[in-house]
Specification:
The complex is a heterodimer of chains A (221) and B (219). With 221 residues, chain A is mainly alpha-helical. Chain A is built from 9 helices and no strands. In chain A, helix 2 crosses helix 5 and helix 2 packs antiparallel against helix 7. Chain A is flat, with a radius of gyration of 21 Å. The chains are: A mainly alpha (221), B mainly alpha (219).
Chain lengths: 221, 219
Amino acid sequence: MEFDFAVIGDNWQFLAYGVWITILLSAVSGFTSLAAGLVIALLRLYGPGWLRVPCVLYIDSMRAIPVLVVLVWTFFALPIVAGVTMSPFTAALIGLTVHLAAYAAEIVRAGIESVRPGQTRAALALGMSRAQVVRRILLPQAIVRMLPAFGSLLSVTIKDTAIASVIAVPELMRQSETVAGQSFQPIEVFSFAMLLYFLMLFPVTRGVDRFYRRVAHLGRS
Amino acid sequence: MTLDWSVVWQHRDALIAGTATTFLLTIATMAIAVPCGIVVAVLRLYAWRPVRALATGYVELFRNLPLILVVYWAFYVLPILTGLGLSPLATGLAALSVNVTAYNAETFRAGINSIRRGQVEAAMALGMTRAQALRRVIVPQALRRILPVLASTWVSLFKDTSLVSVIAVTELAYVSMQVRAQTFRVLEMLTAMAVLYWLLGYPQAKLADWMQRRMKVTE
């Protein structure tokens, strides 16, 4: 058995484009799902009563359906329902956001609920409004406490973007598949892709841990 | 747009068989990954230093790789390395097991480490051997921390089995997409697939939540 890693050198631009799309999709969907998750968690906790049940149902449903199913449905079935066409990238962004926002919402809720209720009562007694309590007392502490969970969510996001290869988003997984298929050297190409993914993911998990250790004291009370 | 939902009922046998394969994969993977996870965790905690480093490397590697890539890798590389013509099901099972073993090993390690050292020291001061302390003091408490995590790993695994559809394992996702391709009933079949996963996964997710609440340990 012989290995010939020249195939990597010959296709490096093609693979580098995949890395770029992976990073772009991870960053954008990471941001959108955080924003959406924050809104959903706040609606669930402080919104009107009738919104609570739909929010919980949405969160629990997304935890029950595989991300592959969400992505495939968004790309192939949603255009039929909505009558719009979208690029694979847009479909992946929508699908990943819909899926990951549920997890982000759970993280935010757990973070907010981890702040002792006495603090809320004290702030209300001092004459703050409910919105002020959330903004000035709860979120500043909760966000620090949520950091480790957000870090693992970010690494889940990067891993989930690989599933977008199924709907032909030209990210690293898809590009590797293409090169492997054309060159008939799947071992070299997929092993190299493993290395690239590891190099992207490991620093994220480690970096967030390290950052958290530096700021953890800000979340204590 | 005309919808024809009868296509779902017509292919019920294939969908049921796919669901059975999904469950089979989940159960078989857990059956492999729990004992293997214990072994890796123990190696990582108590073994000779180089073995410990190896176990740590394995856990860190597979926790930092997308599962779908591991599935592809297993599909193309295992036959060449082993010289065996493995079925897609066996390949998918191998990929899922390797992945879940890494997560389980981390769960077990964290569970054991979460019990304060003082407890082992106290047990040994009372005359227990190390093995006794592990068996009678650490493991019973650690289990209550480990079981809820295993339950949520189970739920993730149940969903992740859908990823082996890319190597043509005939589980629920593959079967649904197969029927979609044959009948061109895209919306119907994909919605049916999502609903089936939802019906199967929702109770499991709720059960995992309940275990989490039920087994909370405070030292």
